[in-house]
Every structure is written in structure tokens, then in C-alpha cells.
């Protein structure tokens, strides 16, 4: 079985974010990941993580301040805002000893896509160079257009091509099975094809985005595939619990059998 991390953006959301760290540890998680914890002082977060001996995997870069923003990295003309967001993420991530930053591309109209790709690659190169100095990886994640209409990065192969063009070893693919299943499907083939580019895997049920023991994806088979590929990374539990997070964690045992 893979190693599972708790995404504290969604799990244990009935309590303040810093208290979710203790909750994850009490449920047996050894690693966590976050969305946007920037309102919590970084030193407080670092102390909470250290006191519970939790590995901090990654966090999202700020998404921007304009209405409709969901990332800045592919938005032409907003490069200075992207650099400010990167500064903030690197400072916070370094303090809490995160190993990765998720670089969100943003919402782009169809007629802006060519310029957006050039901007995205340039921003990724700069972000990767700076993150590399801090020992961090940059992650990019294709998202489905049902949940996130107009998001620039929406196919695994598109992400793989951009990573190749950017030419930085510390830019990796965040393979979110939920998003990939909705947009493209054929999960096991894509995991096998792009394994060398994958820096992190995330899971949730499709279509509900609840615990992964329901829906159309056979996660038991996905986990067997990752084991067969000798995947060394973590699998992030990034789902919206059906109820109390602790009650839904039965999926960990339900999906661990053959």
C-alpha cells in the first residue's frame, strides 16, 4: 500500500487549521499537505508540525486577489503579482519545511492560451530555480473544467509537455486521480506512462469527491498499480468528507485488502 497524507484543506475542516495538524496525527497520518494556510503564523505552524512529528509535503501558492482568480502563473501581464505570490509561498514554505509548492496556473480564455503557455513556462522556470535553492519541488496540476471552468492546465499530456519545455528537474506533475478521471480517464495507463514526472498523487471519489471507497474509480486497483510501479511518493487524501473526517477514515482499511 502507498503512504497516505492528509490534505488539511479538506480533512478535519470542523476545527481551526492549526488544530487539524494534531487531528491528523491522532488518526495515524505521518504527513500532511495544505491549501492556503497563510493566515496562520508560519512559526506556529512549524511548531505544531514538529510537536506531532509530521512531514509537511506541500502547500498552494496564493491564487491572486482579483475576482475569479485561481492562480497567476499563466496570466500574461501579471508577472509581478506572480513573483510576489512566489515570495510569500517560498517564505512560508521554507519556515514550515514544506517540500513542494503547488504553482496554480489560473483561469485563461481560449484566445489567450498561446500567450498563457509562454508565460506559464517562463514563470515555472523562475519558480523552479528559486524553489530549488530552498530544496523544494514545484508541482503543477491539471484540473477538470467541470469544477474549474477555464483553468489553463487541464490535461496530463499538456502538463507533461510543459514540464519538458520548462526543462527543470524540480518541476513535477501533481496527478490528482479525481481531476484526471473526470477529464480523461484511463488512470492506470497514464500513471504508468508519466510515472517519472509524477511528484505527488491525490485521490477522491468520482463524481462525489468524497471518500475514495465510493464512486467509479477502483482505488484498490490504483494502489496496486502504484505498488507495482514502485512509486516512492505519497498519496494525498484530498477529498471532501461525507461527515466527520474521523468516521470516514474506514476507507483506509476497506481499500487495503486484495
Description:
Helix 1 (17-26) packs parallel to helix 2 and helix 3 packs parallel to helix 4. The relative contact order is 0.13. The chain starts with a strand and ends with a helix. The chain has a 9-stranded parallel sheet with strand order 3-2-1-9-8-7-6-5-4. It has one domain (12-254): TIM Barrel, CATH 3.20.20. The radius of gyration is 17 Å and the shape is globular. It has 10 helices and 9 strands. The protein is of the alpha/beta class.
Largest sheet: 9 strands, parallel
CATH level-two architecture: Alpha-Beta Barrel
Percent strand equals 5-15%
CATH class: Alpha Beta
Structural class: alpha/beta
**CATH level 4 superfamily:** Divalent-metal-dependent TIM barrel enzymes
Count of DSSP E strands?
9
Q: How many distinct folded domains?
A: 1
Low-confidence stretches: none
Task: Predict the CATH topology.
Answer: TIM Barrel
What is the rounded Rg?
17 Å
Question: Which strands sit side by side, in order, in the main sheet?
Answer: 3-2-1-9-8-7-6-5-4
Report the end-to-end length measured between terminal Cα atoms. Answer: 10 Å
Q: Number of helical segments?
A: 10
Helix-strand pattern: EHEHEEHEHEHEHHEHEHH
Mean pLDDT, to the nearest integer, reads: 96
Per the principal axes of the C-alpha atoms, what is the gross shape? globular
Amino acid at each position: 500500500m502507498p503512504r497516505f497524507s492528509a490534505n488539511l484543506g479538506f480533512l478535519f475542516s470542523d476545527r481551526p487549521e492549526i488544530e487539524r495538524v494534531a487531528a491528523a496525527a491522532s488518526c495515524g497520518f505521518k504527513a500532511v499537505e495544505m491549501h492556503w494556510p497563510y493566515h496562520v503564523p508560519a512559526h506556529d505552524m512549524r511548531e505544531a508540525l514538529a510537536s506531532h512529528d509530521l512531514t509537511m509535503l506541500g502547500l498552494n501558492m496564493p491564487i491572486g486577489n482579483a475576482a475569479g482568480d485561481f492562480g497567476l502563473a499563466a496570466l500574461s501581464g501579471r508577472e509581478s503579482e506572480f513573483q510576489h505570490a512566489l515570495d510569500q509561498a517560498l517564505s512560508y514554505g521554507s519556515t514550515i519545511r514544506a517540500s513542494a509548492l503547488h504553482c496554480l496556473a489560473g483561469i485563461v480564455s481560449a484566445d489567450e492560451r498561446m500567450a498563457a503557455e509562454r508565460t506559464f513556462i517562463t514563470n515555472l522556470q523562475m519558480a523552479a530555480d528559486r524553489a530549488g535553492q530552498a530544496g523544494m519541488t514545484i508541482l503543477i496540476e491539471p484540473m477538470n473544467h467541470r469544477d474549474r471552468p477555464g483553468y489553463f492546465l487541464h490535461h496530463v499530456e499538456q502538463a507533461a509537455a510543459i514540464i519538458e519545455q520548462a526543462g527543470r528537474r524540480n518541476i513535477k506533475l501533481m496527478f490528482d486521480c479525481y481531476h484526471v478521471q473526470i477529464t480523461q480517464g484511463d488512470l492506470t495507463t497514464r500513471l504508468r506512462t508519466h510515472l517519472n514526472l509524477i511528484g505527488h498523487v491525490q485521490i477522491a471519489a468520482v463524481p462525489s469527491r468524497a471518500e475514495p471507497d465510493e464512486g467509479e474509480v477502483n482505488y484498490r486497483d490504483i494502489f496496486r498499480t502504484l505498488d507495482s510501479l514502485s512509486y516512492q511518493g505519497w498519496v494525498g487524501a484530498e477529498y471532501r468528507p461525507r461527515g466527520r473526517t474521523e468516521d470516514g477514515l474506514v476507507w483506509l482499511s476497506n481499500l487495503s485488502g486484495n
